[in-house]
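I am still getting used to backbone structure tokens and would like to learn alongside you. To get us started, please write out a protein record for me. Start from the sequence, derive the backbone structure tokens from it, and show both lines together. Once you have written the record down, we can walk along the chain together:
***
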Amino acid sequence: MTRPLYHQDSAALSFRASVQAVGDSEVALDATAFYPAGGGQSADHGLLRWNGGEVGVVNTRKDRATGLIWHKLDGTPPAPGTQIAGEVDAARRWRHMARHSGEHLLAQCFVRIDPAFAVDAVNMTHPECTLDLRGDPTEADVRAAETLLRETLARQRLTLHTPTVSEEELGQYPLRRETKVRGRVRLVIFKGEDGGFFDVSACGGTHVPQASLAAPVVALRTERIRGGVTRVVFMAGQEASEYLGGVYRDSRALAQTFSVPVERLTERVEALRTDLTDSKAQAAQLREKLARVLVEAALPDAQGLRWLELEDPALLVPVLGDVPAGEVRVALAPGGRCGVASARAEVHAGELLRAALAVTGGKGGGRPELAQGSTLEPGGFLAAVRGALASAHSS
């Protein structure tokens, strides 16, 4: 069995131990500060050094049957009995501790907002962590929980305590959720200076020694993942600070292009969105007017077919609309875009277009009154339509 030094002090990243067993590119130690993956938290990485050797630790796992913690190495492992010095990757560990502590603290705030917001599952293996909650929290609930935690971390000194207690002693602690662990249970407690409990959870993970070190904890978005369960995506600690700083820098740069302060960026973007919507509506009206002019200028040929060759693909749909009884209208736009509109009972627009495309290549089809597609040979498309129309008349 490996003694888990990370349970004694999550901030202690250097240690000495001896090699207990050696496997395929793995070693098990008699003691370790490397946290094995579990409980939604990723494994630690780092280095093992010994007299004459050094290897990187690229993964850590616990064998629950034996209690041994195995360290996956990127080189040749030392022999059993070797005395080693271990060094946990500090940056990685602190990121993981902030994520895990942020999850505990945010979950507690959700419970304080509404006890129905119980944790269903968690994941802290990426900078964007997830907290799956029952009880259907709304966006207002998410913001209330985030605000409560922000105010708590700014105004209270919450200290980490990690006692291991017997199953019988659990009743003395206000656990946020019931634990399935039996026998001796490790608790993760964030306690105020007055001795009051802020959060108590059964947990084997690593955590920051002061809750404020997990700040800021920011809820980014929510996702409804299944009936009754809402996923809250959040970030914590240094990763959240870096993310928010990047968002601010990008927002400031964007605001400068619009000559407004950052706090007015949303207002400016909304104004531009309104202008864009109005401009699109005006452009659509102008296209409709232009389409009518183009249709009037294109006289029907001897087959009663009105042919239009367009300079803008956006005019394709407008010129094919409002076809009067007895007329067949055909249009070709740049890029081979094409369409047929028919107001003749005996002429099926979709069949006529498919027959023309069978000659010129391409794909398309549609309803009896309107069909659209794309031809590979724009130069021969009109002749193909006329040929197909003539065949339809003779059949």
Remarks:
- The CA atoms of residues 160 and 190 lie 5 Å apart.
